[in-house]
From TrEMBL:
InterPro entries xrefs: SH3-like_bac-type, TPR-like_helical_dom_sf
Keywords: Membrane, Transmembrane, Transmembrane helix
Record-annotated SH3b domain positions: 183-245
Domain of life according to the entry: Bacteria
This protein's name: SH3 domain-containing protein
Length: 245
């Protein structure tokens, strides 16, 4: 049994080690330093170009970089991108001050969909460790099932209390997966966007939306997203939506 647990412990260490975040490459650091230098000199458009290249090509970003990108985009009156970068920052580093900034920006430009509850804030805070905790719980479940199977083959039987407890543990994992599901959402990225009642250009027109509004995405059908618009089920073309991670 000690040998089995040693192997399990070794597996956990290796698994968590491989799951750690990679260190940033030297070219990434050089580009980021150059962009930060341009930002300090108030050469915002040049800095933004490099920031966007880092985000698109390297898939790396720091919270400070996202705030700078949002600042530049707000100055350019590109509120869709400003909200997008603020959202990325919020997901990476949940902060009530960023929520307040998003709400103020939305209120100033009459944008909808940026109302956040305390429950949403709690879920976002907790989601920073969501995957790691889920991995640990699933590994523990697999290890327990493996040990139960090996013990069962040796003729050992488990009490009803243990079975009930393990069943409740599995149900908790299921609840955990669904509890922190914040749902999919996107930001309308174009102006004069038609909101339709069905996934068809010939369906009834509901409204015309401008860029910057945030909408929950409930599903998709061909070239359409099913969304919620002012409490109603509606549809919008995918090309008009900037999906949020």
């Amino acid at each position: 049994m000690q040998s089995l647990w040693f192997k399990i412990s070794l597996f956990l260490i290796l698994f968590l080690g491989f799951g750690a975040e990679p260190t940033y490459s030297q070219p990434y650091k050089f580009s980021l330093d150059r962009a930060d230098s341009l930002f300090q000199k108030q050469e915002y458009t040049d800095a933004l170009t490099i920031y966007e290249q880092i985000l698109e090509q390297e898939q790396h970003y720091s919270p400070q970089m996202l705030l700078k990108m949002a600042y530049i985009k707000e100055g350019l009156r590109d509120y869709t991108s400003a909200m997008y970068y603020l959202h990325l920052f919020y997901v990476k580093q949940p902060s009530r001050s960023v929520l307040k900034k998003m709400e103020e920006l939305a209120h100033a430009h009459r944008l909808t969909g940026y109302e956040y509850s305390d429950l949403h804030f709690f879920k976002t805070q907790f989601s920073k460790h969501y995957m790691r905790m889920l991995e640990l719980m699933l590994i523990a479940a697999v290890v327990t099932v493996t040990i139960m199977f090996l013990s069962w083959r040796k003729g050992r039987r488990f009490s009803n209390t243990f079975k009930i407890g393990f069943t409740l543990y599995l149900l908790f994992i299921l609840y955990y997966v669904n509890f922190l599901n914040l749902g999919d959402a996107g930001i309308i990225k174009n102006n004069h966007v038609a909101i339709m009642s069905a996934p068809s250009a010939g369906s009834a027109w509901l409204a015309t939306a401008s860029q910057g509004h945030k909408v929950p995405i409930r599903g998709e059908q061909d070239i359409w997203y099913e969304i919620r618009w002012k409490g109603e089920v509606a549809y919008i073309r995918k090309t008009n939506i900037l999906e949020l991670p």
